[in-house]
Write a sequence for this structure.
């Protein structure tokens, strides 16, 4: 991968050695294609750092609202030919920023929606299993939106989780990032 992403001479020469006589490919070739690598989260792996340093890197971070109000409906409409609205509405009504949704979750939901409709199953029950919510983040989200004071919310969080005030604020900070990115 490193050889395919960058070379000081400009030519990206990929080579590898094999003892197999089954492979009908050259052991060395000039790579002229493009590579797109998508990750949900950055990784500390040195191999990925090496690829990143040889690439044009673009961080794409979407807020919960951008996903459920923008990206999800567009993808679902393309995939479901006019039946996207009810699926997207269900996901939006049964999730919040604590759900930490990803585009992959939508794609799984679309597959389950199709499967359920072909087989007479309840797609809502199946899709609900995809929406995975961190219980503590969900609690903080609800507390942030309940109209109570921060002091009352911290007290309630500590009572329900047994965790510290600092944990409440760490979770709150994480949620704000998911909402505001």
């Amino acid at each position: 991968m490193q050889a395919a992403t960058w070379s000081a001479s400009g030519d990206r020469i990929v080579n590898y050695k094999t003892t197999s006589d089954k492979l009908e490919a050259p052991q060395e070739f000039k790579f002229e294609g493009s590579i797109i690598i998508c990750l949900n989260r950055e990784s500390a792996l040195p191999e990925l750092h090496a690829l990143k340093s040889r690439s044009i890197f673009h961080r794409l971070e979407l807020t919960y609202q951008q996903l459920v109000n923008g990206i999800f409906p567009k993808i679902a409409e393309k995939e479901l030919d006019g039946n996207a609205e009810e699926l997207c509405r269900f996901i939006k009504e049964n999730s919040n920023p604590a759900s930490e949704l990803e585009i992959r979750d939508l794609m799984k939901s679309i597959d389950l929606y199709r499967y359920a409709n072909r087989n007479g199953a309840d797609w809502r029950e199946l899709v609900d299993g995809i929406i995975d919510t961190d219980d503590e983040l969900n609690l903080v989200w609800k507390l942030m939106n309940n109209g109570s004071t921060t002091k009352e919310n911290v007290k309630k969080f500590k009572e329900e989780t047994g965790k510290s005030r600092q944990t409440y604020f760490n979770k709150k900070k994480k949620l704000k990032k998911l909402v505001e990115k």
